[in-house]
Each structure stands twice: as structure tokens, then as C-alpha cells.
User: Which sequence fits this backbone?
């Protein structure tokens, strides 16, 4: 059974302090600025550990020939390479950010960066598929559970314009997710909740936060 929103926040605190999902068997790197674990120490997940929920009406992972484990493990590798300086983050600050609505939270309410990146990669894989919002819309939910602890990341879109509905290409929603994951990172493992407009569309605001209920609105 997944945790309530409030309970998920409490778990987020345990994760922030390095007790969950930092490394195999709960042995996370010490210190808030600990380096990403080398490949041999990277967390290992099974299909039972990860629950992926696509947004209402969006394609399944199976239709993209992907699994939830592949999605999260690829995200871990990407973040590791970026932290080493081997490649640039897809959320690196660019000219558009100067006109953006970027906002990062603070405090103990943090998200697992790999889950956020995995949602971004899923949405990016959808390319020009429209991500449509009438009031609010869940685009992606990933819940990872190991050892009785759960860590959830939800990507949600909210209409930010006076219109019946707003939409952007899903890859443009992914851009907003990438920007948040880079700009709002606390350390190599965790990030604060964030908000950013879909690429080129101030009328569609994209939020990342810990939740376990991907509900169609």
C-alpha cells in the first residue's frame, strides 16, 4: 500500500538524510554533497521495486519498448555522468530560463532526482505527442519502494492561462522537468520540489513534487 501525501513527505525526510535509496542496502554516501556512487555502488532495482504510472491518456512504457527499471537506471547513469562533468545536463540554464517561471522549494520535502529525470525522459520520448491540461493533469508518477520505504515523484501540469485548455508537446513539458531537476537539486541524489513553464508556453505550468496519487483531473 502506498503512503499518504503526508507520509510520503516524512519518507522524503528520511531519504534526504541518506537512509533510503541513496545506495544499495540503504548505505548512502555520507554528507549532503556526497559524490554520486560509482557504477558498482549504484542502486539496483527490480520490477517489484518500481511502480510507473503514465499520465491519463498518455502511452504506456510498453508501447515505447521500455521498462520502469530501465527508465530509472538510465536516469541514474545520466546524472552520474553529468555530475562527473562528462556531459551537460539537459536542464542546463539557457536563454529561455530568463523568461521562465522557475521556482524551487526548500526544506526537508525533497524528491529523488533519478525518478524526476526518469519522468522527464519518458515525456521526452513522447516527442510531439500533445500533453493537454484543462485544469490540472498528471503527466507521470514514479514510486520506488525498498525495505518498506516508498519515495514518490509526480509530474503535474496546471493551466496557467485564461483558456478552456492548454497544451504543449510532451517533449516541451520534459524540458521543464529537466530544468527543475538541474536548478532545484540539493545534492547528487536529491532535489527540492519545483515549478517551471513548459518550453515556450507560459500558459502551462509544470510541477514536480512528492505524491502517490496520479489522478486524472
Assistant:
Amino acid at each position: 500500500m502506498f503512503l499518504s501525501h503526508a507520509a510520503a513527505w516524512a519518507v522524503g525526510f528520511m531519504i534526504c538524510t541518506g537512509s533510503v535509496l541513496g545506495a544499495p542496502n540503504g548505505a548512502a554516501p555520507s554528507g549532503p554533497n556526497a559524490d554520486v556512487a560509482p557504477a558498482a555502488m549504484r542502486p539496483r532495482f527490480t520490477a517489484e521495486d518500481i511502480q510507473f504510472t503514465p499520465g491519463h491518456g498518455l502511452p504506456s512504457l510498453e508501447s515505447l519498448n521500455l521498462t520502469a527499471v530501465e527508465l530509472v537506471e538510465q536516469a541514474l547513469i545520466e546524472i552520474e555522468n553529468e555530475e562527473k562533468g562528462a556531459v551537460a545536463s539537459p536542464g542546463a540554464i539557457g536563454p529561455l530560463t530568463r523568461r521562465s517561471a522557475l521556482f524551487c522549494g526548500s526544506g526537508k520535502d525533497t524528491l529523488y532526482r533519478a525518478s524526476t529525470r526518469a519522468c522527464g525522459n519518458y515525456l521526452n520520448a513522447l516527442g510531439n505527442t500533445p500533453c493537454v491540461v484543462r485544469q490540472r493533469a498528471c503527466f507521470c508518477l514514479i514510486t520506488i519502494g525498498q525495505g518498506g520505504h516508498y519515495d514518490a515523484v509526480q509530474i503535474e501540469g496546471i493551466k496557467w492561462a485564461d483558456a478552456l485548455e492548454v497544451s504543449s508537446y510532451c517533449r516541451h513539458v520534459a524540458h521543464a522537468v529537466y530544468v527543475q531537476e538541474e536548478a532545484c537539486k540539493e545534492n547528487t541524489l536529491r532535489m527540492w520540489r519545483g515549478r517551471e513553464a513548459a518550453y515556450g508556453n507560459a500558459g502551462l505550468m509544470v510541477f514536480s513534487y512528492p505524491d502517490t496519487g496520479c489522478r486524472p483531473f
